[in-house]
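Progress against Task 2.4 (sequence-to-structure conversion) is shown through the following example record, which the project officer requested during the mid-term review.
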Amino acid sequence: MSGRLEGRRALVTGASRGIGRAIAEAYAAEGADLLLVATGLAQLQDTTEAVRALGRQAEMLAADVADRAQAEGMVDEAVARLGGLDVLVNNAGVYKAARFVDFEEADLERLFRVNALGTAFAMQAAIRHWMGADRPGKIVNIASTAGKWESANQSGYNASKHAAVALTRCAALEHGRDGINVNAICPGFVETDMLSELDAHARILGVTADEVRAGLIGRVPLGRLMTPADIAPLAVYLGSAESDGMTGQTITIAGGMRMG
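Structure tokens generated for the chain above:
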């Protein structure tokens, strides 16, 4: 590794597993110190140990980004524990598969509170901290290809991720002159715990989970699902000085599943 994030201090939500953990480890390998956030401290232990093994500072915090006070508080904690904040990675997210007509109010509420409002709350807190600062920062939102186009049986999830994409673009437009970069990564199908919802898709479609998985892979020109390790290097780039000229972008990484 080349120290592309040397001296940077980053807050990563949803850091206990999957994409969040991969990003945390990649950031540490490139020289960043980290505040790692998840809903429970026990979930963060493995990620914390991995970051510390790379010689970087790793702090843990239990917080639910769906709660505004907790989302804002984690930004304050990052500043206090790390001595400042340079990169906010909004990775925390939830998923639900259901037919459009079957989404319950509670399902929609949870999807929007975590995926959209949680992202907004953290962004607002970070941007307020950076406005007028000599060293403004960068925001990396983990959205989804679901936030760029339509999908069957996940309308609530798609709508919440469309909101995350809109927040990315609007915040980038408003705060570019503050020197703040705001971008989003839009992964396609990724090998994470969210794929456990394949069973729900299968029940809706009347097929097996293996058939659903095969169908997903069949849509990807590279012939495989993405992995968290595919996503992390892009997050490193967006958190580094290399991306200083980029803002308001929603970058797809989906094995060519959809191009353009």
